[in-house]
Amino acid sequence: MARATIKSIAKETGYSVGTVSNALRGAASVKSETRQEIQAVATRLGYRVNMDGLKLRTNKSYRIAVLVSVSPDAAEEWEGVEFTRILAGISAALQGSRYEMSVFNVADIPDAMTTLARIVQDGLADGVIFSGTLHDDPRIAFLQQHAFPFVTMGMSDSKMEHAYVDFDSQAAAFDATARLVRLGHRRIALVNPPAELIYATQRQTGYEQALTDGGIPIDSALIFNGSTTARTGQNSFDALMRLPDRPTACICANEAMTLGVLSAAHAAGVRIGRDLVVISTDDLQLSRYFVPPTSTYYVPIEETSRLLGEYMLKALDGANPSETQKKIRATLIERQPDTPALHTAPTK
Amino acid sequence: MARATIKSIAKETGYSVGTVSNALRGAASVKSETRQEIQAVATRLGYRVNMDGLKLRTNKSYRIAVLVSVSPDAAEEWEGVEFTRILAGISAALQGSRYEMSVFNVADIPDAMTTLARIVQDGLADGVIFSGTLHDDPRIAFLQQHAFPFVTMGMSDSKMEHAYVDFDSQAAAFDATARLVRLGHRRIALVNPPAELIYATQRQTGYEQALTDGGIPIDSALIFNGSTTARTGQNSFDALMRLPDRPTACICANEAMTLGVLSAAHAAGVRIGRDLVVISTDDLQLSRYFVPPTSTYYVPIEETSRLLGEYMLKALDGANPSETQKKIRATLIERQPDTPALHTAPTK
DNA sequence: AAACCATATTGAAACGTTTCAATTAGGTTG
DNA sequence: CAACCTAATTGAAACGTTTCAATATGGTTT
Predict the structure, then answer these.
(1) Looking at the structure, do residues A101 and A246 belong to the same domain, yes or no?
(2) B37 lies in some domain
(3) For residue A128, what pLDDT is reported?
(4) What are the pLDDT digits (tens) for B113-162?
(5) Are residues B129 and B201 in the same domain?
(6) What is the tally of structural domains in chain B?
(7) pLDDT digits (tens, 9 = 90+) for A36-84
(8) Claim to verify: residue A178 and residue A161 sit in the same structural domain
(9) What range defines the domain where residue B219 resides?
């Protein structure tokens, strides 16, 4: 039993293929009784549009490209990003639309650029979603220049407005820092993503603002940038321990970095929660299983990525950028007792 | 400048579309000079086949469905599976072929079954890849019944041969257990995935065999099954501690479970490496950052998943199942000193 | 009753590809 | 030279869809 097509419905109902096509798309030119009759037959026969025919005719791809970065240099490392959940959220949002999600693995920014060029030129997709926005992001510039629809995870510094879903990293960093300051900490380290990332700057801004509000001078020796891996956390901790005036607290950007800090602290015999208070941002709710568990600012990743998909559909529908922008606040989950700063810094 | 098509190449070369089509596919019926001439023009014009036209004509989808399980009940948990790397491996293998990878999110087995039904009936894909094979796996039965090509990550107990890539879980569990037995451990716990998974059985078989070889009785109170999450590790540890005769070692199935055990041990004041030796299997190389780091049997996940893609292509090419089956050995990475079993079990 | 209008439907072309029967050209055999 | 064979190429149909000019139908206005 072959799949029902417009042609088979035409034969069944006696109308022409043109009418059936128009009826199925709910065109006003078709008399409403006719439309209902045709639609009834269509559902009876279990008609589902053949996207290949549709795409061929319309020259649209009905595809949303999702750029997923798999950096080979971090192959031996874990970057703490659960892309599965992001993809799940996006495809959930696309459910019911004619669009489907298509995953494009990219290694780095140049690779992303060539991929985007292919997508735009060869019409591989009708829209793009990607994350990790940079300062002067070349991907955004390219897509805007070609008037190609896209949604980013993370906002940008582009002059031109565009669709995005962002975490309020600045607010989270501010809150975390202010909280530590209130507890009496004056030497607070920031373990941050690479500086070219917009949200690294956002975090640093929030951090510095809270310090300034608390009358604490900013010390660049306490700020670290690196890939969001455990190794970076480890390296940062080791560097911190070499400082003459050691920090009593540390704010990490994600679970992987936190894990690295805890790991290095354990190796160095530094007691987390007493000698060093660690607080981080968290998508996977993993920090509750750390030794010891750490307090985190939690962001619901799946819900967030559903928004990515929804905004993509809106953008393809020609929506105004202002309707497709959202900043999501993280919520604090406390797992460590509010430990005040100790007066004496730990000695190795 | 529109994209080159067979038609435009026909016009350019003076041959008919039929000849061009045959030439581009390297058909022997086309004279070799003609073929070369046409192919030269094709590359000059940057011709790339339009898959929509191709698919419409051939009624093939040129698509490989990858079933990715995103269980909503584990939404708040981390299952320790890095699907990003799996997808990257598969799409790397598909690179250069005409096939593309398509991600299908499924919540559970029934959901997977309806998804598979749609894939098979509506021709959504030409082949399927999925992981987590079960005893009497209904997915495998369904696909075999419909003679639909597929490759599994993990072998099955199906009577009919099929393509798979598997880790040698049994060997890894055997080695791990035997190693602990050599160190004098006699009470060894096994923290295992749900029993319906084939590899849970494989692990248990290896474990029991090593115990039997060492003359140690098998105690079912030391065997735990549950989702591969940190919570399961935590729960297992708590149950272990309630036993009158506590274990001195524990073998975990993945990083997430290991993390849960470490976390619970920390909470209970049990010293890992002294009171309890933990060893696990590991895909992400994450265990080296645990507190304390744990020894693991490591499986290179990206390379493994590239095989999944390669076998899929072979299977679509009608390859014999025997050419598309592989069992991969894990390699031991030691991170804890070889701690012998203590005589006195820890008291809480 | 002729002319016009609005509404509903039709028919055919087009998107890019493969496939296959039919055709052509050239060579070999009887 | 007629008949046949082989090799190379052509032409057209088909896949499922949209789109749009053309047509048909019936009603209203002049």
Answers:
(1) no
(2) yes
(3) 98
(4) 999 999 998 889 999 999 999 999 999 999 999 999 999 999 999 999 99
(5) no
(6) 3
(7) 999 999 999 999 999 999 999 999 999 999 999 988 767 778 888 888 8
(8) no
(9) 169-299
- Which nucleotide is closest to A34, CA to C1'? C8
Q: In the 3-class helix/strand/coil scheme, how is B191-208 assigned residue by residue?
A: EECCCCEHHHHHHHHHHH
Residues 6 or more apart in contact with residue B245 via CB below 8 angstroms = B187, B345
Q: Is the CB of B68 under 7 A from strand C?
A: no
Report whether B68 contacts B103 (CB < 8 A). yes
Task: State residue B72's pLDDT score.
Answer: 74
Q: Reduced to 3 states, what is the DSSP secondary structure of residue A342? A: coil
Q: Residue B342 pLDDT more than 70? A: no
In chain B, residues 109-128 whose CB comes closer than 8 Å to chain A: 122-123
Q: Inter-chain contact B78–A77, Cβ cutoff 8 Å?
A: no
Q: Closest-CA residue in chain B for A234?
A: B289
Q: Which residues contact B258 (CB under 8 A, 6 or more apart)?
A: B233, B252, B278, B280, B282, B287, B290, B294, B296
Residue pointed to by tokens 């060093």:
A276
How many CA within 13 A on the CB side of residue A272? 25
> Residue B338: its pLDDT value, please?
65
What pLDDT sits at residue B93? 96
Nearest to B177 by CA among B341, B336, B185: B185
A234 touches chain B (CB under 8 A): yes
Q: What is the DSSP letter of B287?
A: G
Report yes or no: A296 and A254 within 8 Å, Cβ to Cβ.
no
Our CA-based measurement puts residue A215 at a distance from the nearest CA of chain B, in whole angstroms, of: 36
Nucleotides of chain D touched by protein CB (<7 A): 7-21
Q: In this model, does residue B42 exceed pLDDT 70? A: yes
Do A187 and A238 lie in one domain? The reply is yes
The verdict on residue B200 lying in a domain is: yes
Q: What is the CATH number of the domain that holds A280?
A: 3.40.50.2300
A50 in contact with B, Cβ within 8 Å: yes
Pairwise CA distance, residues A120 & A150, whole Å: 11
Residue B2: which pLDDT band, with cuts at 50, 70 and 90? confident
Q: Closest partner residue to A3 among B105, B122, B266, by Cβ?
A: B122
Residues B319 and B286 both lie in one domain: no
B160 touches chain A (CB under 8 A): no
Measured CA to CA, the distance from residue A125 to residue B99 in angstroms comes to 16
Q: Same domain for B134 and B210? A: no
- Residue A207 falls inside a structural domain: yes
Same domain, B118 and B75: yes
Indicate the residue among B299, B319, B339 that finishes a domain. B299
